[in-house]
Every structure is written in C-alpha cells, then in structure tokens.
Design brief:
This protein has one helix at 3-19; strands at 41-42, 52-53, 64-65, 67-68, 89-96, 101-107, 135-142, 159-160, 168-175. It has 179 residues and is mainly beta. The chain has one domain. Strands 1-5-6 form a three-stranded antiparallel β-sheet, covered by helices on one side. A two-stranded antiparallel sheet has the order 2-3. Strands 4-8 form a two-stranded antiparallel sheet. It is globular.
C-alpha cells in the first residue's frame, strides 16, 4: 500500500473509530497484548527503488513516489526516494478511549522505530560525516472535521504526496538516540 492509500486508509479508520463506542483500554507499558483485538492494517514492504503511485486524485497527471523528507515544503516538490527500514511501516493500528487516540506502528524486521545517529553536534549538511545528533519523528495527522476545504495540506509539514484538509497532528520525536 502506498502512502496515498495509507492516508486514505487512516482517514477511513478514524471515521470508523469515531463511531465505535468500544473503550479499547490501551496501556502504554511495552506489552502489546491489549492491541490483539484492534483491527490491523498492512502495507507492503518497500523496496530499494521505492513505490510509485500510478495517479493522484489531486494531480492526475503526476506519478507520485511514496516518500517523505523534511525539506520538501512546496506543493509540487517531489522528494527523492530513500530506502530506510526504520520507516518502512508494514502494519498499523488505531484505537481510542474516552480521552486519548492511540497509534501502533510496526516496521520491517530489520528496522527500529526511533533509531537515530548519536553525536555531540547538530547535523551539518556541509560536513555530513561529522558525528551528529539525529532526529526521528513519528507523526500522525488527522482530519478532525472531515472537511477537505479546512485545515492544511500535508506538504506544509514536509510530506509527499500531499493531501488536503488536515486539522491536527501528534508526534513523537526521538533525538540523539533517545525520546
């Protein structure tokens, strides 16, 4: 499943969850047994060459790569695909209770969510070999009012392919080997 389909699937799942009165009782404790009965959505493994969408509903003439970088901010910018097992999501789940929204992600077996470089300096583009503190984000974006004409486009957060109408996001940041 490519990124666009993931976005649509997450949108659909959130619609289902909004109407689901079941309290999931997710506990953040390192034990994932409480996720066993939560519906799971899978995404095929990425490959070294990347995945290409055949068509975008917003820009039908473009073939869109399934990728993201933090430097892409313009609607028509297309980042170069970079294979990284640490962000190769193959399964996700979404649950909620009366006060919280929970997201479960699983990456390929050789991937580690949150893996960053560790070093005493900020990353320097002019000297990328210098040991630097890396950053890794897990960001979940939500269209709260289910209206594509309100909110922001995903490219405003560095995502590609873009999609309209997102009102909120939550994120976890890993920095310099910790979170």
């Amino acid at each position: 499943m490519n990124l666009f389909n993931r976005i649509l699937l997450i949108y659909s799942v959130i619609q289902i969850l909004k109407s689901d009165p079941i309290n999931r009782n997710i506990i953040i404790d390192g034990n994932f047994d409480d996720w066993l009965n939560v519906p799971s959505y899978s995404d095929p493994r990425d490959n070294i060459n990347g995945t290409v969408y055949q068509e975008s509903p917003w820009f039908p003439s473009l073939k869109i790569p399934d990728c993201h970088d933090a430097d892409t901010k313009i609607l028509t910018d297309m980042p170069k695909h970079t294979y990284n097992p640490n962000v190769n999501i193959i399964e996700f789940k979404i649950a909620h209770d009366d006060s919280s929204l929970y997201v479960y992600y699983r990456v390929v077996d050789d991937g580690v969510i949150g893996k960053t470089s560790v070093g005493p300096h900020e990353f320097n583009r002019s000297d990328p070999s210098k040991p630097s503190a890396g950053r890794f984000y897990i960001i979940t974006t939500v269209n709260l009012d289910m209206n594509d004409t309100t909110g922001y486009w995903l490219h405003e957060g560095g995502y590609y392919p873009t999609a309209p109408g997102f009102d909120a996001n939550f994120e976890i940041e890993f920095y310099n080997g910790t979170y």
